[in-house]
Amino acid sequence: MPEPGDSIPRIIEEQTSPGISLDLRYTDLHSGHYVIVDFKEALIATTASGNLAENPLLWTNSDSLVGVFQKDFENLWHNATSWKYIETTAVPEKLTSYMEKLRPTNHLLFVYDSPEAKYNVLFNYLKVGVDKGEAGVYVTSDEDPSKIREAMKQFGIEVDKYEKAGALRITRYEEIYITEGEFNMNTTIDSWNKLYSTALENGFKGLRVTGETAWFFKRRLVPELIEYEKSLHKAMDIPMIAICSYNANNLNKTEDPINVYTKLARAHATVLFTGVDKRLGRMEIRKV
Predict the structure, then answer these.
(1) Least confident range of 76-90, 112-126, 248-262, 273-287
(2) Residue 238 to residues 49, 128, 232: CA-CA distances in angstroms?
């Protein structure tokens, strides 16, 4: 998706006349770099990084090879968003649309750079769930539960109503991650299983959970965190939806942030980055 201030739509408007057929769409789906001409020829870059013109290219006029890339393009095109729509789409609408598409066993890594960005994503995520009849669990460690509860109320979530009905639970990390003063991976995964079973027993359609991970970094338990994330992803036969929340500052302060991030990304099916912007917001989704 475009960053705020992307100049491409403006250039298209300035340089094209009404008689020229040209369209632009944006997508979060990963793709290679290629150009298809008249359904007959294709130029394919040998890498998806950098600018298309800066990379070695392969040319083909093979019908079967061109067809493969044409099929990929059609899939991208039909799942992409018109640049005209992006210019008028608010952040909550984009987030809500994405959060509604999440399905049981989806396991996301979420990286945020401010409390506002965190609230915007996670509160939308939980609100979509409770509106659909699902239960939600928010595990805090970056902030106190009372602060999260108050922020949710300001966001427009009827916290008292949902907590009383059992549709929403806001709890500290000790209740989920800590057993007898220590982190126990198996016990934590068992806790998620019990929470899911309880949600179904109470008549909810499913369960959405999210956990802040700041305490792992405070206690220097990053290796344990990585192993937990790997195990959780393998154990996501639990039909719940999970977003694991990471403050970008915590990741950047580790001894080897790139290596840590890479391992965490591999332990999730999807990585969601977001930031704060009054007009569009910055939201990028990467499939791993």
Answers:
(1) 273-287
(2) 36, 20, 9
- Residue range 91-287, CATH number: 3.40.50.300
pLDDT of residue 92: 60
Other Cβ atoms less than 10 A from the Cβ of 148: the count is 23
Q: Percent of the chain beyond pLDDT 70?
A: 88
259 has a pLDDT exceeding 50: yes
Q: What is the mean pLDDT of residues 260-283?
A: 73
Per domain, the residue ranges of the chain are: 8-86, 91-287
Looking only at the bridges linking them, the beta strands covering 41-45 and 34-37 are antiparallel
Backbone angles phi, psi at 127, to 5 degrees: -65, -40
Going by pLDDT thresholds of 50, 70 and 90, the confidence category of residue 25 is confident
